[in-house]
Design a protein that fits this description.
Layout (H helix, E strand, L loop, with lengths): L18 H10 L4 E7 L17 H14 L4 E9 L5 H10 L4 E5 L22 H18 L4 E2 L14 H17 L3 E5 L14 H9 L3 E5 L12 H10 L4 E6 L2 E6 L7
Parallel strand pairs: 1-2, 2-3, 3-4, 4-5, 5-6
Antiparallel strand pairs: 7-8
Helix pairs in contact: 4-5, 5-6
Bound molecules: zinc ion (ZN) (2 copies).
The site of one zinc ion (ZN) has 5 residues, from loops.
């Protein structure tokens, strides 16, 4: 069974359920390995409504270590979802180094001051130059990779959330430099099923971008981006089918920020 490497806790302020509830939900769908990846604190005042404070961080790390100690029949990893934005390295670089995470997801949720995937800021899309937004987004992704701070790129094509997308040919051209860099840096991308719960109703990334990733031998993992326990492992069979249809035969697992390849088994997908 696949591992679910993307889920939040109530510490981020917009998720529900206790860590035990997430573990029990994983057990119910037969998942043997999960990673908590709550939003990293940013003491510089970045996006405070969607993350724990630095003062709350010990609570997060205690929550994860106590559930790890209580659970013997599955693997629970300790991760974090850390945003990339201009200047984030000043805090993140030393902070990530001193915490012993199993994996770090790197995500872009803002273009300048605009939280482009925030439902409260969705109206901005109506007057935006869509191609320009996607170019800015993928430029930020190349910078994210350049920092060398992250293991996994979170929800690779997040700007599609509200269905504002450039045509495929243009998207392929826009995404190429970032995908080349992800491959060169030997980073992983996640098949994030959270997109199936949004207006776009599609896994992140799209079949087109996943095909481009496959051509570059970019490794994959799987994440539900669960914000409530019942979303753990959400539609993983669809994600597995997408991986299969794209020609993937392996995914990766992490431990202490080292990755290893695991064969994918397709027997139980239709
Ligand atoms: Zn995210
Ligand atoms: Zn997330």
């Amino acid at each position: 069974m696949l591992a679910d490497y993307h889920m939040h806790t109530s510490l981020c302020g917009h998720a529900e359920g206790s860590p035990e509830d997430y573990v029990n939900a994983a057990k119910q769908c037969g998942i043997k390995e999960i990673c908590f990846t709550d939003h990293a604190p940013n003491p510089d005042g970045y996006d405070p409504d969607n993350r724990m404070t630095l003062a709350q961080f010990p609570e997060y790390s205690d929550l994860v270590s106590s559930i790890q100690k209580q659970t013997s029949d599955m693997t629970i990893l300790y991760g974090i979802e850390a945003d990339y934005y201009h200047g984030c390295e000043a805090f993140l670089a030393p902070w990530l180094k001193k915490n012993d995470f199993d994996l770090v997801i790197g995500s872009v949720h803002y273009i300048a001051e605009w939280g482009f995937d925030n439902p409260a800021e969705k109206e901005t899309w109506k007057s935006a130059d869509v191609s320009h937004v996607w170019r800015d987004y993928f430029t930020l992704l190349t910078k994210l990779v350049d920092t060398g701070l992250y293991d996994i790129v979170g929800h690779l094509d997040l700007p599609k959330k509200f269905r504002y997308c450039p045509p495929d040919a243009e998207l392929a051209e826009i995404a190429t430099p970032a995908l080349d860099k992800i491959a060169e840096a030997d980073m992983t991308i996640e098949l994030n099923t959270g997109g199936l719960r949004k207006a776009v109703n599609e896994i992140y990334p799209s079949p087109l971008l996943l095909k481009m990733a496959r051509e570059r031998n970019i490794s994959i993992c799987f994440g539900s981006d669960a914000h409530i326990p019942s979303q753990v492992g959400h539609e993983f069979n669809m994600a597995l089918k997408l991986a299969k249809d794209t020609g993937y035969s392996e995914c990766v697992r992490y431990l202490k920020r080292e990755k290893r390849s695991i064969p994918l088994h397709f027997d139980h997908i239709a």
